[in-house]
Amino acid sequence: MELSGAEITIRCLQEEGVEFVFGYPGGAVLHIYDALFQQEKVKHILVRHEQAAVHAADGYARCSDKVGAVLVTSGPGITNAVTGIATAYMDSIPMVVISGQVPTYAIGEDAFQEVDSVGITRPCVKHNFLVKDVKDIATTIKKAFYLAKSGRPGPVLVDIPKDISNQKCEFSYPESISIRAYHPQGPGDIEQVKRAAELLLGARRPMVYAGGGVVLSDSAAQLTDLVRLTGFPCTNTLMGLGGYPSTDRQFVGMPGMHGTYEANMAMQHCDVLIAIGARFDDRVVGNVEHFAQVPRKIIHIDIDPSSIAKRVKVDVPIVGDLKLVLGQLLEVLRSSAKKTGDISDWWKQIEEWREFGGGLRYKNSDEIIKPQFVIETLYKVTGGEAYVTSDVGQHQMWAAQYYKFNQPRRWINSGGLGTMGFGLPAAMGVQFMHPDATVACVTGEGSIQMNIQELSTCRQYHLPVKVLSLNNRYLGMVRQWQQFFHGNRFSESYMDALPDFVKLAEAYGHVGMLIEKPSDVEPAIREAFARKNDLVFMDFRTDPAENVYPMVPGGKGLSEVVLSEDL
Amino acid sequence: MRHIISLLMENEAGALSRVAGLFSARGYNIESLTVAPTEEATLSRMTIVTSGSDAVIEQITKQLNKLIDVVSVMDLSEGEHIERELMLVKTRAEGNAREELKRMTDIFRGRILDVSDHTYTIELTGSGTKLDSFLNAIGRDLILETVRTGASGIGRGNRILSL
Asked: Which residue, among A143, A142, A85, has the nearest Cα to A118 in the 3D structure?
């Protein structure tokens, strides 16, 4: 039977097992929306802004092993989506974005709502396609899903002109697909794995540095086995939190700009560093020249060869699927006659650093709400079991520091691109994936206003997300940098004319709470989370002067960390 | 250091811009870039002349390999290879210079393709440095216009870039 391009598009989504597609209609996708209307398998979630559609699909993918799906129109539809696509690209999130395009005969004529979608998204997608023949839709969408989820995952765009979605052809969904220039990595080179094992067994000051790749490849169990087997200290990056249980003694905290003292000192002074699905980015190792001053052997496991030796020199590169490579490494270590060396002196040193750094600490107050206290209370009330999404800024760092993630895919944040406005729509995606789970969105009064319109979407679909807004009346991270590095000149970082968030939440049909006293924090959070079916917006008035510590200033080395001065 | 990178890619709309976009987005140099279809209709062959430290060149080849449209990549300058560039030069050719230019063209094994009362149009093939030497030899004053293709390269002997 012949189907229209639009019907084929929806059939493809069905074949891929897409349950939800997040989107916003418009002229160029009218045929596709018409096809969507006439079936029930794929449910469409109508957001209030295309950026939010992409973040929602992104959150949906991050908290599951699924590919996020997005549908937007041409022109402003796709340009609004670009921030979301770039966010997903930087964090390697599997996603397929279908965009409408003006009819093929109008392309290049500056038609109404025309933009070069393939051109504009090229630098922030894993791959993209412009479909020029209705007969190509099925194979293109099949390829898009395959590319999005295989290898190093990422967003893939399929741009479908309006006339193509209206033409008809026979439909058959390809069972498999092959792309001749694309061969995702399997296991690692066993000789390299053996060399890595040799280094690990001889190490006196070893360190395990695991990133988002562990979460993306569902290798948390293998990582945990490796760390337990070796007895080595382990750090998880911002993207890797939950990859190894945060409450375990072998976990030394997050590394990097706002990492713990012990994690950074151990990164700096170890003699063998094994990097697993992490990419030594500037927020993690700081100044690479400073980092390179201390001699150490580096083993780097990653599925993407271009992530290896990009910023630091690597002694043993292993390209491969983390899950398989870690399996190989565990096997080699377990069958080795040699055992790991005595690292008790190293642990003693790490404990001294732990003591000196004092872990994560802040001076609590009876007068004013400390933002860290809110996160600690959130952790306590939810028993560490919540899915926590965040926006970007100080609150993001406090959430990463003070909420202890013991499982992967529970911590959902925009690590690479640092996209304000990510938290609420991402929480929507998480809640769609896990309708009965507790979902908390930790945000600030700056970030939340970048996608606050999504409170309306939450109302429409009855999403009981709990929003914890750490409202300090400042763009806190900007203010902190201005305090430290720009002579206290708080240029444009004060948030004036803020709305009444309680009334705003109520106007959208939700519950709003204003919390001003430290003693009210726990009762308020308990009350909010007891309201299982309501979205509760908690407006915490927090200390505007609070800074995120420890801090490795930009361009500095990991051991040049600034600890909180008032402790 | 100068490198000459050769690659095969899908002969599809947009493939060239993916490569060009990669270089500009990541701040890599492009000295020259040539591209044309091959005997296999679905493939284009591209030659890129670039420069950078060993680490940068390593990243360039890795990033090129990562592009879905790029089928295979070879750094020709890692081994024995041949490179050629074609140049067309229009020169002023009057009086004594006419004879001198003809002589110089012969020495460089070029050909005069077109002659007018006042000009010659000369074709020359060779490495980039040979073409530079020719321009220096005839003197900048006589040159009216030059057009160069950029280098194309191929490995020597059994070094073959294929699917």
From this structure: A85
Record: contact A119-B13, CB cut-off 8 A? no
Q: Which CATH architecture has domain A190-357?
A: 3-Layer(aba) Sandwich (3.40)
| A306, A312, A319, best to mutate vs chain B, most B CBs in 10 Å | A306
Contact between A122 and B70 using a beta-carbon 8 Å cutoff: no
Which are the contacts of A362, defined by CB distance < 8 A and separation ≥ 6?
Answer: A370, A372, A373, A546, A549, A564, A567
Nearest to B10 among A130, A181, A305 (CB): A181
Class of the domain covering A371-548: alpha beta
Measure in Å the smallest separation between the Cα of A395 and chain B Cα atoms: 31
Q: pLDDT tens digits, residue range A420-445?
A: 999 999 999 999 999 999 999 999 99
What pLDDT, on a 0 to 100 scale, did the predictor assign at position A565?
66
The superfamily in CATH containing domain A2-170 is: Thiamin diphosphate (ThDP)-binding fold, Pyr/PP domains (3.40.50.970)
Supply the pTM of this predicted model: 0.96
Q: Is A130 in the B-facing interface, judged by CB distances under 8 Å? A: yes
A74 pLDDT more than 90: yes
Cβ A127–B9 below 8 Å, yes or no?
Answer: no
pLDDT tens sequence across A504-546: 999 999 999 999 999 999 999 999 999 999 999 999 999 999 9
DSSP per residue, A368-417: SB-HHHHHHHHHHHHTT-SEEEE-SSHHHHHHHHHS---STT-EE---SS
